[in-house]
Amino acid sequence: MKKIGFLSFGHWTSSPQSQTRSARDFLHQSIDLAVAAEGLGVDGAYFRVHHFARQAASPFPLLAAIGARTSKIEIGTGVIDMRYENPMYMAEEAGAADLIADGRLQLGISRGSPEQVIDGWRYFGYAPAEGETDADMARRDAETFLTVIEGEGFAQPNPRPMFPNPPGLLRLEPHSEGLRDRIWWGSSSNATGAWAAKLGMNLQSSTLKNDETGEPLHVQQRKQIEAFRETWKESGHRREPRVSVSRSIFALTTDLDRAYFGHDRNSQDQIGMIDDTTRAVFGRSYAAEPDVLVEQLAQDEAIQAADTLLLTIPSQLGVEYNAHLLENILVHVAPALGWR
Question: Which residues span the membrane (predicted)?
Answer without folding.
Answer: none
